[in-house]
Amino acid sequence: MTKNKILNVQTIAVSVTAINGEDFICITDMAQAKSDASRAADVIKNWIRTRTTLEFLGTWEKIYNPNFKVVEFDHFKSQAGLPSFVLSPTQWVEKTNAIGIFSKAGRYGGTYAHKDIAFEFGSAISAEFKLYLIKEFQRLKESESDRLKIEWNFQRTLAKVNYHIHTDAIKENLIPSEISKKQASFIYANEADVLNVALFGKTAKQWRDKNSDQKGNIRDYATIEQLVVLSNMESTNALLIHQGIDQSERLIQLNQMAITQMQSLLSHKQSVKKLK
Predict the structure, then answer these.
(1) DSSP label at 4?
(2) Tell me: the pLDDT tens digits for 111-166?
(3) How many whole angstroms separate alpha carbon 234 and alpha carbon 90?
(4) Using CA atoms in the order 88, 164, 64, 108, what is the torsion angle rounded to 10 degrees?
(5) Coil, helix or strand for 86?
(6) Rounded to an integer, what distance in angstroms lies between the CA atom of residue 3 and that of residue 26?
């Protein structure tokens, strides 16, 4: 374990440590942005017990952890949302053999989460805090990249796990059995465009038709604020899909979410500019 580094996020000092080349961020420090230090553990427990969080954590572990106990995870997921259900990070790790979260004592002690998970936890605090956290982390990684001459891509880091959460929800709830690959790809693209329309006001095809001279797709040209909101929307849409909410209703809810979060982020545009 390397020496901790500190991110200053809206007056909150947030510790970052590296284990086997992977960055882990102290979510106990982050929780102080929502409550005082004495209640940080409660903020984390309330977050980890929700179905959305468990879906995210379980998907992350299944991608990166070959020793993850899926049966135990399924048990927790079935209990999520019940008033009697409680869960702590320590219980999560002990029962499922999870590697994305750990706790430690002493100086810089607290609960640490892999950066993918910590960014998701940032959503539980506020879109604004999540943006500041990502910008400070981006500054740290770009500094390291310059020093070590390696590439670090913010977009890939932010989007990869949320993408799996979203596609898993589509696969489990929207794709019938015995469907062709062509039909499946249409459903995935259709759901991706729900997010595109809610956030950008246009489908991927509409963007391509107006930007035929550009490489990539609509999301490659998104601002950092839009990417933060998009990652939040992917998790929310996955939850709404699991709840059986009709696509048209989901689009309305996601559009309102996008408007609210973008207004919040852009209202602090001058402050955000100082981070760039």
Answers:
(1) P
(2) 999 999 999 899 888 888 988 898 898 888 877 766 555 445 555 565 566 666 66
(3) 27
(4) -40
(5) coil
(6) 13
Ramachandran bin of 179, using left for φ above 0, alpha for ψ from -120 to 50, beta for the remaining angles: beta
Cα distance from N-terminal residue to C-terminal residue, the chain? 29
β-pair partners for 15: 6
Separation CA 74–CA 58 (nearest Å): 9
- Total Cβ atoms within 10 A of residue 13: 11
Residue at token pair 């955000």: 272
Task: Give the integer Cα–Cα distance in Å for 18 and 156.
Answer: 19
Residue 48 has pLDDT above 50, yes or no: yes
CB 51 within 8 A of CB 41: no
CB of 145 closer than 8 Å to CB of 152:
yes
Residue-wise pLDDT tens digits, 73-100:
999 988 887 888 999 999 999 999 999 9
Please tell me the distance from the alpha carbon of residue 87 to that of residue 80, in angstroms, as a whole number: 9
Q: Which amino acid is at 214?
A: Q
Which neighbouring-strand residues pair with 26?
Answer: 112
